[in-house]
Amino acid sequence: MKTNSLDFDAQALREKILDLAMRGKLVPQDPNDEPASVLLEKIKAEKAELIKEKKIKKTKPLPPITDDEKPFAIPDSWEWFRLGDILSLENGAIRRGPFGSSLKKAYFVPKSKNTYKVYEQGNAIHKSIDYGNYYISQQKFKELSSFAIRPKDIIISGAGTIGKTYILPTNAPEGVINQALIRVRLNNNLISNEYFLLAFQQKIGLLNKKAKGTAIKNMFSISHMKNDLIWALPPLSEQSRIAAKIAQLFALLRKVETSTQQYAKLQTLLKSKVLDLAMRGKLVKQDPTDEPASVLLEKIKAEKQELIKEKKIKKTKPLPPITDDEKPFDIPDSWEWVRLGDLVAPVEYAMADGPFGSNLKKADYTDQPEVRIVQLSNIGENGWKDNNVKYTTFEHLKLIQRSEVFPGNIVIAKMMPAGRAILIPNKDKKYVLSSDAVKFIPNDLLNKQFLLDAINSNAYRNQVNQKLQGTTRPRTSLKKLKNFILPTPPLEEQERITREISKLLALALM
Q1: pLDDT in tens, 343-376
Q2: What DSSP string runs through 66-109?
Q3: How many CA atoms lie within 13 A of 234 on its CB side?
Q4: How many CA atoms lie within 13 A of 235 on its CB side?
Q5: Dist CA 395 CA 253 (whole Å)
Q6: What is the mean pLDDT of residues 470-495?
Q7: What is the DSSP letter of 442?
Q8: Which CATH number covers residue 166?
Q9: Checking DSSP bridges between strand 430-433 and strand 371-374, what pairing results, if any?
Q10: pTM tops 0.85, yes or no
Q11: Range of the domain at 122
């Protein structure tokens, strides 16, 4: 049986494995292991001796760990600790890179025999390591010696993608870290770098809460990381067993992930091909007894005109006629090309976008499950994605009523993947759009599932992609989405097409 990529969440499994590991439930304990308490006593004794010999400075002790701080039970051979307790006994064992004024581009020099590397965020934290192109002189390196890194040091990204970690390899060139990086130097007689990286990954969510900034997240607090958070310390031998077991499990996950990704690509290609055939009238046969689409469209127009006459809806400016140059391919005689905006239901705000950012700010959010905010991240390739849950209040919804959306409505993404469409599920009390989405309520005389498939087909999406605006964040607009055209078959054929699409795609998921 094939693995359904929609049901496989590799990241959730990784997080579960890490959680079990940090609770002492991933590998068995060995009674012959030297307990972590002995390790901690050794480091205390070593530190006291170095202070006595005046080789290091005496520092204020970290506060004892209270029972209230301990989030869960750990094995008897383990101990809770603060990161400051297990750092290298050198001064400055954890350090953020120098401020920009201490390491400006003006200090950079061409590479030569006597130059030193400047490690940067983005080129010092990946397995295929790229050390970048910036160097400093020997004199400048001496001035910045407290920011120097050496093999086995841990480097942590502190800006952008916060928390990416890397152990500097033995063949890495000498150098210093820049402002966006954090260097951590551990006491390796107490804790292995490999185990610490895994423990750090499990803590990254808590650390990110201390990060600042919106568009680009910036450095979490080193003080918080070192002094406030508590970490679980197993015996040294068990640390190695945990790291080895996680490496084995993560390798298996990567294999499954690769196969599911390849399977997902095949599903996407198949779906694209099926929809393409459907939109060209080549998926099911035409039936000469079907009422032509032209008659269906006249009914929609007549219904709208009657409601305008009765003053139940407002008259709107008609969309421009469709030219032959706009039509990307030929369709059967019983079909018609029509603009999406001409297929809406005759109700107010049948096609509307979300409020501008100033009308739906973080200050308007609530922790209560009141009005679910439909975000770009909810518009998945295969339907609604129930993640990144955010709510606003019932009271605030009154101010942005035009953006309210209801279960069964179609919602289209304005940003990449621009043009992707889903149906709103029936799971939350109420829904409202974010600024990145557009709702589309189709006329009841049409088959809603056919329209959803048509919007997700290349026939429509190609038009969207050809007229995107912006470079960093390409987007479309409500006006453009209204004006893009769809091939529209007779209603009976719409229903036959949706049944055939559903059958073919169901076979692909078996």
Answers
A1: 999 998 999 999 987 789 889 999 999 999 999 9
A2: PGGG--S---TT-EEEEGGGSB-SSTTSEEEPPPGGGS-GGG--
A3: 29
A4: 16
A5: 45
A6: 93
A7: B
A8: 3.90.220.20
A9: parallel
A10: no
A11: 94-185
Which tokens go with 54? 């005046």
150-168 confidence digits (pLDDT tens): 888 988 887 666 778 888 8
SS3 per-residue string spanning 232-256: EECCHHHHHHHHHHHHHHHHHHHHH
Asked if 412 contacts 395 with a C-beta cutoff of 8 angstroms, the reply is no
Rounded percentage of the chain residues whose pLDDT exceeds 90: 55
Domain contains 22: no
The residue type at 124: A
Residue 9, domain member (yes or no): no
C-alpha distances out from residue 235 to 195, 238, 308, 407, Å: 11, 5, 78, 53
Is residue 37 included in any domain, yes or no?
Answer: no
Closest CA to 222 of 82, 54, 359: 82
pLDDT at 127: 42
From the CB of residue 447, how many other CB atoms can be counted at a distance below 10 Å? 20
State residue 2's pLDDT score: 39
In a domain, 155, yes or no: yes
* Structural domains counted in the chain: 1
